[in-house]
Amino acid sequence: MVRGHRRDDCLRYVDWIPPMSDIKRNYTREELDRMSDDELARLGTELDDVTVAYRKERFPLANDPAEKRASRRVATLFALSVVLGLAFVAVYLFWPWEYKHLGEDGLWFHTLYTPLLGVTSGLSIMFLGMGAIAYTKNFVPEEISVQTRHDGPSDEVDSRTLVALLNDSWKTSTLGRRPVIQGLAGAGAVLAGLAVVLPLGGIVKNPWKAKAMGIQGDGTLWTTGWTLHEQGEKVYLGRDTGAIAEEHDGHYTTQGVSRLVRLRPEDLDAGSMETVFPMTEEMVNDGDKFDAKRDVYEEHMHSIHGPRNAVMLIRLRHQDALKAIPREGQEDFHYGDYYAYSKICTHIGCPTSLYEQQTNRILCPCHQSQFDALRHGKPVFGPAARALPELPISVDEEGYMIAKGNFIEPVGPAFWERRS
Ligand code: FES
User: Fold this and answer.
1) Distance 389 CA to ligand 1 centre (A)
2) 277-316 pLDDT, tens digit each
3) Is 101 buried (19+), middle (13-18) or exposed (0-12) by CB count in 10 A?
4) CA dist list (Å): 124 to 80, 93, 115, 128, 192
5) 36, exposed or middle or buried, with CB in 10 Å at 0-12, 13-18, 19+?
6) What InterPro entries does UniProt report for this protein, alphabetically (predicted)?
7) C-alpha 365 – ligand 1 centre gap (Å)
8) Atom 3 (ligand 1): residue with closest C-alpha?
């Protein structure tokens, strides 16, 4: 193996390798104990069939001003790595990262969060690498070595001489007498490592920690926006109009147009499906309660973004509805020909978006699970093993569709605490 020069040069130095037969290979423990580190290092290179053909110290003279300049350059690179590593940690811990919607105060700072994490961690690692390269070029001796390859296991003399060689590398690198560079390089390496490890902290959460109950549930896996019904709230089935937010007085809202609106049974054709979201009374801004100046956009979007909120409201064709077989204990969950099933697939949580009118099957496009809408959302094909939870529904005195209870089981995929 040849390091540090072209093949032509290598050939020129091959003559310098002592013949292998001249090298003594067997040493007693006492003989090895009597040898100095330098002697062991030299012996190690020879036993490894390596000849150091050329070695030159970078700064052979003590107190060379050029060495001090080089030392400052390297220290500056490691210091920049440390500063940027610290900047990364500071951004990760203290920069405002919570969601801001368009037009909200602080949006600009919020949008800088991810780019700043990338820039600070990237530059920290880059300066650490540049420092290591600069150190090698400036302080590790120039060396040309030639090695002949050979096979076979290592014996004791090899392992002892290897340690000596590593000691020799440490000494000749002069890193041992440069504590500032040592400290900066070490700190830079630790901080660059943190830039990789720290973001994993974002996925460490306590799954049992409940917040206040809201339109997305309380943050635990067994609650949804529909759980508000258990707290005495009237919860409507809100239909998503898809209204796009626009700027009103420097603030992005759908003011004047409601994003979620209440739904009446006659809004749905027989054999069709509509995705609905929970909507409490104070979120209503339609029909006789419509106020063009009221702004409920944010509440509506929170309901739509609730990870377990989406429900498929299906109006079966009447002749099909006559064949429906309800699950025991859920006989009165439907309202006439209308059935409401959680849209969150019980396999691994994709939205089961497709309803096939002819077969009354609900299809999850992720892994092709199929559920039978006539048999309480029971899985009939694919990897899903649980039925889609059914939401009990009814119609209020004004003719709007409402939830008349909460799901009686958690929605979505399996997890440890789930009993159903
Ligand atoms: S997530 Fe629905 S089939 Fe896999």
Assistant:
1) 15
2) 999 999 999 999 998 888 888 899 999 999 999 999 999 9
3) middle
4) 7, 17, 14, 6, 6
5) exposed
6) QcrA_N (IPR045603), Rieske_2Fe-2S (IPR017941), Rieske_2Fe-2S_sf (IPR036922), Rieske_Fe-S_prot (IPR014349)
7) 7
8) 367
